[in-house]
Every structure is written in C-alpha cells, then in structure tokens.
C-alpha cells in the first residue's frame, strides 16, 4: 500500500518563485538590471485565466461554442505569475498612460522581451510545450 499522506497539501512543495531579468532597460540606481519576481500558480488559477479569456461565439447551425482568445489568455497567465513589479499599481499604469495590468505589460515591454517573459512563465508553470502547441491546446 502506498502512503496517501505524501499527497496531502502540507506535504507538497511550496509554489516555485524565481527572479528573471525581463529587460536590460529597467535598471536600479547602480545601473544593474532589475529582476522581476515570478511565481508558479495552481491549475485553479490557470483555469480562471482561461475562462476569463473565453467567450461564447455563434458557431455552425446557430449553436454557441466557447472560443478562447489565446493572446488574452497568455497575457492573463503572465500577469497572474508576476509578483514584482506590481502591474496593478495605479501609479505605474498612469506612468505608461494605460489602465489594466495586461495593457500595462504590453506597453512596458518590447515584443522580444514579452515573448521571453511568456516563455519563462510557461516553464515555471510546468508547460513544456512551445507557444504554438499551447495555443492549439487552448483553442481545443
């Protein structure tokens, strides 16, 4: 018989956190790049991101089917994994002239920086697939 207590919540490893330099453009007072703090999330949190990026659209024969906006889903996934900087901070959003964490992230980062961040967030959350494979999975 196996010991089920190994699977009890108090016996599992805590969520993973790590520092990641998203961009060399954000520097501290000494001129060193500032690392962002990322965390892993639970499947329940992931599902919440997916659901909030999913809409019912009229499909064939007039039936409504769920359709997930992949870009919106990935943005929500990334925002949920970022602990620092706080993308929900009103002053930070105001400094970029935008409202909302997902919009702020897109204003703050260059395309390559954003892609690197998305990839790192996927890795810390256990996705061992490419962006295209994840996008296909989300669509289904």
UniProtKB/TrEMBL annotation:
Pfam families: Phage_TAC_5 (PF08890). InterPro entries: XkdN-like (IPR014986), XkdN-like_sf (IPR038559). The lineage of its organism: Bacteria, Bacillati, Bacillota, Bacilli, Bacillales. This is Phage XkdN-like tail assembly chaperone protein, TAC.
């Amino acid at each position: 018989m196996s010991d089920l207590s190994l699977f009890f919540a108090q016996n599992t490893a805590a969520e993973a956190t790590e520092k990641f330099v998203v961009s060399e453009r954000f520097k501290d007072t000494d001129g060193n790049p500032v690392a962002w703090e990322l965390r892993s999330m639970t499947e329940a949190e992931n599902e919440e991101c997916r659901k909030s990026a999913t809409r019912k659209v009229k499909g064939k024969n007039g039936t409504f089917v769920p359709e997930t906006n992949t870009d919106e889903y990935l943005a929500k996934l990334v925002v949920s994994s970022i602990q620092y900087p706080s993308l929900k901070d009103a002053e930070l959003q105001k400094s970029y002239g935008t409202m909302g964490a997902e919009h702020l992230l897109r204003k703050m980062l260059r395309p390559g920086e954003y892609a690197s961040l998305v990839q790192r967030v996927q890795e810390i959350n256990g996705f061992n697939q490419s962006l295209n494979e994840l996008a296909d999975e989300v669509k289904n």
